[in-house]
Amino acid sequence: MKSTKTSRFMRQGKEIKDENQQDFSLSLIVKTSAKEAMKKIAQVDSWWAKNFKGQANKLNDEFSVHFGDTYVDFRISEVIPDKKIIWLVTDCNLHWIKDKKEWKNTEVIWSLTEKDGKTQIDFVHKGLTAESECYDSCEPGWTHHLKDSLMKLIEKSKGFPE
Q1: Do residues 8 and 19 lie in contact, with contact meaning Cβ atoms separated by under 8 Å?
Q2: CB atoms < 10 A from the CB of 5, how many?
Q3: Residue 102 domain boundaries
Q4: CATH number for the domain including 35?
Q5: Residue 145 forms part of a structural domain
Q6: Which run of H or E residues covers position 80?
Q7: Has residue 31 been placed in a domain?
Q8: What's the farthest any 2 CA atoms get from each other in the chain?
Q9: What phi and psi values does residue 3 have, to the nearest 5 degrees?
Q10: Average of per-residue pLDDT values in the chain
């Protein structure tokens, strides 16, 4: 008989199987080049957080976003110019949930594909799943910041950071 090893962890007293997790993802199509979209993504203080420190442009850049008692620290761990950038969460304090470090070691992955004068931005927050403690507030937060703020920054040069 064949044995299958399954990675499991506990969340709020319930066992979760890793293979059943679906990372939060969202896709946008914007009317601009991948190069311009990548520049706008790096302007974190223009679409996500007004309280932004550091740089978000190149490999090994480090930056932080702050929302009152909440903060998230990132390091850019991978860059393929105009195609992909990965933000690794190196530390965080998600003050409103029990597991304040829930995002630590998760990754925010941006993949860009340009075609016919438009760019598809595929966003994945690897490690943010429906089983995550913050999912009920983080999913609509990311959706708003990406669809409403980042998209407006890219297409109309005006985002709505918090």
Answers
A1: no
A2: 5
A3: 23-156
A4: 3.30.530.20
A5: yes
A6: strand 70-80
A7: yes
A8: 60
A9: -100, 130
A10: 90
Contact between 38 and 112 under an 8 Å Cβ cutoff? The reply is yes
- Cα(111)–Cα(119) distance, integer angstroms: 10
pTM given for the model: 0.86
Asked, for residue 42, whether it belongs to a domain, the answer is yes
- In total, how many domains does the chain have? 1
**65-77, pLDDT tens digit by residue?**
999 999 999 999 9
- Residue range 50-107, pLDDT digits in tens: 999 999 999 999 999 999 999 999 999 999 999 999 999 999 999 999 999 999 999 9
**Shortest CA distance to 80 belongs to which of 40, 118, 109?**
109
> Using CA atoms, how far apart are residues 157 and 16, in angstroms rounded to an integer?
42
Residue 14: inside a domain: no
Nearest Cα to 159, choosing from 150, 65, 143, 36?
150
Q: 153: part of which helix (H) or strand (E)? A: helix 151-156
